[in-house]
Design brief:
By secondary structure, the chain is an all-alpha fold. It has 2 domains: 10-89, 434 Repressor (Amino-terminal Domain), CATH 1.10.260; 100-133. The chain is built from 7 helices and no strands. The chain has helices at 10-20, 25-32, 36-44, 50-60, 64-69, 72-89, 104-132. Helix 1 (10-20) packs across helix 3 and helix 2 packs across helix 3 (36-44). The chain is elongated, with a radius of gyration of 28 Å. The N and C termini lie far apart (101 Å). It holds the Pfam family HTH_3.
């Protein structure tokens, strides 16, 4: 049984991170000044020129190491941990619970009542104008 690990396919990692960011190949190509076909070729190759890799990492908002060491498992672990922790401590990581101190429905009713009153005031004003003529 061989314990050799499969070589990392950096092009595939670029592709997955780009897709997770919701970015198309054309957008990445425009950002680094190459053609869409060049991005397709980069994503198909196992190795990438270090200068291009640095540019791509910057555009994707990740580090070069993240591109080189990306795994699907790490993404799921990150999101699971983020959401698990954010439900306990808030999205910013503080321990303060942020709960509404008012009923949102009450605010909607209040706004509606103010709008109705404004319309009544308009009608009253227009009636006074009409009587004055």
């Amino acid at each position: 049984m061989s314990t050799a690990t499969k070589p990392k396919h950096i092009g595939r990692n670029i592709s997955r991170i780009r897709e997770l960011r919701g970015m198309k190949q054309e957008a990445l190509a425009d950002a680094i000044g190459v053609s869409q076909q060049s991005i397709s070729n980069i994503e198909a190759s196992e190795t990438v020129d270090p200068e291009k890799l640095t540019e791509i990492a910057k555009i994707l908002g990740v580090t070069v190491e993240a591109l080189e060491n990306f795994t699907e498992e790490s993404v799921f672990n990150f999101f699971n941990n983020f959401y698990d922790n954010s439900s306990n401590t808030g999205a910013q990581g503080n321990t303060q619970n942020n709960h509404c101190t008012f009923n949102p429905l009450d605010k909607v009713v209040e706004l509606y009542e103010r709008l109705v009153q404004a319309e009544k005031d308009k009608v009253e004003f227009l009636e006074k104008l009409m009587k004055g003529k």
